[in-house]
Design brief:
Order of helices and strands: HHHH
Shape: extended
Number of strands: 0
Structural class: mainly alpha
Distance between the termini: 62 Å
Radius of gyration: 20 Å
Number of domains: 1
Helix content: 55-70%
């Protein structure tokens, strides 16, 4: 008789991951990013860039633009 595996949701995985100690958590993040083709170094660079942008917005050195405006078709009226 075959045993069916219970499907686990992303929320359940996240909940379990957040219960890991810091070292295990970072190790898991590294392994997952490597399996998806994102090296820990590339991830670190993206995180640094996101922090720089967040700081620039918070300090008023950079503004935000509404996504609807950015994605709007320039040929459409409106």
């Amino acid at each position: 008789m075959s045993e069916r595996k219970k499907m686990v949701t992303a929320e359940e995985i996240e909940e379990a991951a957040l219960e890991l100690d810091e070292g295990e958590f970072h190790s898991l993040v590294d392994r997952l990013t490597q399996k998806r083709g994102l090296s820990p170094e590339r991830l670190r660079l993206w995180v640094e860039e996101a922090k720089r942008r967040d700081d620039a917005v918070a300090d008023g050195r950079m503004g935000l633009v509404d996504a609807d405006l950015v994605l709007a078709d320039p040929d459409e009226d409106g």
